[in-house]
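Quarterly update from the structural biology core.
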Amino acid sequence: MNKPLIVFCNKTDLQSLKGIAEDDKKLVMEMKAEAMKTVIGQGGDAAEDKSVLLTMSTLTEEGVIAVKNATCERLLDQRVELKMKSIKVNDYLNRYHVAMPKPGDEKERPPRISQVVLEVKAKKHGYQAF
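Predicted structure, tokenized:
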């Protein structure tokens, strides 16, 4: 269960997944169920079942890119998740603090844009300087 599992059916130009025998269809669905266990075991959502069973044809190149993208995305997600769970990342994340300042007075402080910046923006957009 360490690696993500994707089931893809090749040669769909010869016979589609809907046209296979019931025994074969049952076998494919069992493989899909096993692949779903790896998705759920890695913290994925059960709604991702469309990315677990893919069809493709290398002759017509139908679905080849979808298989490649789904596989790469799944591997990348797993790799990022493993890095986020590692001890090193947690050590670095503990060092960060985001300060949210509280207003000290009721004084209004509008944004201040210097005249030079306004002139440069005006020239860039074709307007006349102020």
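The first strand starts at residue 7 and ends at 9.
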